[in-house]
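hiii so um. not sure if this is the right channel but i have a protein structure encoded as tokens and i wanna go backwards to a sequence. like what aa goes where. can anyone help
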């Protein structure tokens, strides 16, 4: 979510939700569940509603505008539901200046949902194939986004920029840099770490096994899952900063 602060307004651009991406465990009166919005659902919803509102923290009394009145633009692209908003609300401007805006959320009702079971958590997994979209909400630190990995980029009128990443498991903030040379260095470091893990994996395969006298001389399988997991994690980290 990119935020540009002007003297009398704040301009916000970013993704409200990435389609085909699982949420955190959510809660209802029926218990916990996981949810994802299927591709195309937002596009159909926008065709049915010409005035989706933008709220603060899902509070109907904090209506900041909408698509019908020009303060908000929404579209679904290959990534998900993208929003562009230009807001003059004094609290939102103040939250932006203080770095208190932490992400997006949205209010909707189901039209077509398939429910399976999540293979990792065992929780019900709701695949929302069609929906009615009523509002999108800016969230400040009073609320937490339901979907992980909200990137918040704040830029003032004089060009000063700061980025924070709201982590998956806590409210901790990890500072990110806009410096391309530092990003390249992080990719280089991760590439070297991947190569090192691959060398360790190869060396373990090639290392002759020393057995004590009288030990079973049968073939012993080598568990390389540890190294494969390390390599996979490092590749994921490397790709995330490219």
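sure thing!! here u go:
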């Amino acid at each position: 979510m990119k935020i540009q602060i002007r003297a009398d307004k704040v301009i916000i651009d970013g993704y409200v939700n990435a389609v085909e991406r699982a949420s955190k465990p959510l809660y209802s009166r029926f218990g916990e569940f996981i949810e994802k919005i299927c591709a195309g659902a937002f596009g159909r919803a926008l065709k049915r509603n010409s005035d989706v509102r933008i709220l603060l923290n899902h509070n109907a009394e904090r209506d900041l505008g909408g698509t019908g009145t020009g303060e908000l633009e929404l579209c679904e692209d290959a990534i998900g539901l993208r929003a562009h908003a230009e807001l003059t609300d004094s609290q939102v401007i103040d939250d932006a200046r203080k770095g208190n805006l932490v992400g997006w959320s949205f209010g909707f009702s189901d039209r077509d949902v398939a429910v399976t079971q999540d293979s990792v958590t065992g929780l019900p997994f709701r695949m929302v194939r069609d929906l009615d979209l009523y509002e999108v909400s800016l969230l400040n630190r009073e609320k937490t986004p339901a979907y992980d990995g909200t990137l918040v980029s704040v830029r003032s009128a004089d060009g000063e920029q700061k980025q924070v990443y709201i982590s998956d498991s806590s409210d901790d903030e990890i500072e990110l840099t806009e410096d391309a040379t530092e990003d390249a260095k992080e990719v280089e470091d991760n590439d070297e770490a991947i190569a090192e893990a691959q060398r360790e994996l190869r060396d373990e395969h090639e290392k002759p096994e020393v057995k004590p006298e009288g030990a079973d001389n049968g073939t012993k399988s080598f568990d390389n899952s540890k190294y494969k997991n390390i390599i996979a994690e490092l590749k994921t980290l490397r790709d995330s900063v490219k």
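oh and The radius of gyration is 23 Å.
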